[in-house]
Amino acid sequence: MPGSNSVDAGARNVVVSFLRDENRLVSLLVIDDGCGMNDDSLDTSMTVGGREGYSETALGHFGAGLKAASLPHADSLTVISRTKRGPSTGRR
């Protein structure tokens, strides 16, 4: 679930926007102020079963939530992220 990823990233603020075209949902944006991801972290997050060093309090532990929650409902998943000290990076 995108919200749990935001929480695990230390986000204090999460904004969810639904973009519509007439009567249909076109896109869903989840924007947060969490720690962000670099290229390596983003590669892992976009890999089914990708392993991260999860903390004991993390909501996610198996590397499937982002994909499992998104792909059954969408034609594609795009993630754009940046860390405080790094450039923006993205994957689709």
Descriptive tags:
92 residues, alpha+beta, two-stranded antiparallel sheet, 22% helix
List the helices and strands and how they pair.
Blueprint: H1 2-8, E1 14-21, E2 24-32, H2 39-45, H3 65-70, E3 79-81, E4 89-91
Antiparallel strand pairs: 1-2, 3-4
Describe the structure.
It is built from three helices and four strands, in the order αββααββ. The protein has 92 residues and is α+β, with helices and mostly antiparallel strands. The radius of gyration is 13 Å and the shape is globular. The protein starts with a helix and ends with a strand.
**Count of individual helical segments:** 3
Count of DSSP strands: 4
Rg, Cα atoms, Å: 13 Å
Strand proportion, as a percent range, falls in 25-35%
Q: Please give the largest β-sheet.
A: 2 strands, antiparallel
Helix content: 10-25%
Secondary-structure content class: alpha+beta
Task: List the uncertain runs.
Answer: none
End-to-end span in angstroms? 17 Å
The topology string of helices and strands comes to HEEHHEE
Rounded average pLDDT: 79
Strand order of the largest sheet: 1-2
Shape: globular
